Task: structure prediction
Amino acid sequence: MSDQVIVQYLGFEEKGGLREYSFTVREPAHEPLQYTLTIINEAFVAHRARYQDAPDICSLRLHRELATNANHPPTTHFSITDAEMAEYHDTRKPKPLRSFQPRRDD
Result:
């Protein structure tokens, strides 16, 4: 993905059993393109995704698509998968704290 590409989150809409997240992608010498990414509502109810994380999950997927396809993915609509939500969740888990154990002198 070029450094000159600007990805802007526009918001979301409820559409039936899913939420549709809209983004605009701007780059020099090209018309802005609209992209939509969807997450099914059941993913939120089942706690596989949090409402506040959804724009970030969608943005990460869009950035991957732009990087993979030289800023021009073959489609403008993507559906977020359970695997992508799980990966997002796993990469943001807090690291376990190391417990302090005093040194024992025998």
User: Anything to note?
Assistant: The chain has one domain: 6-90.
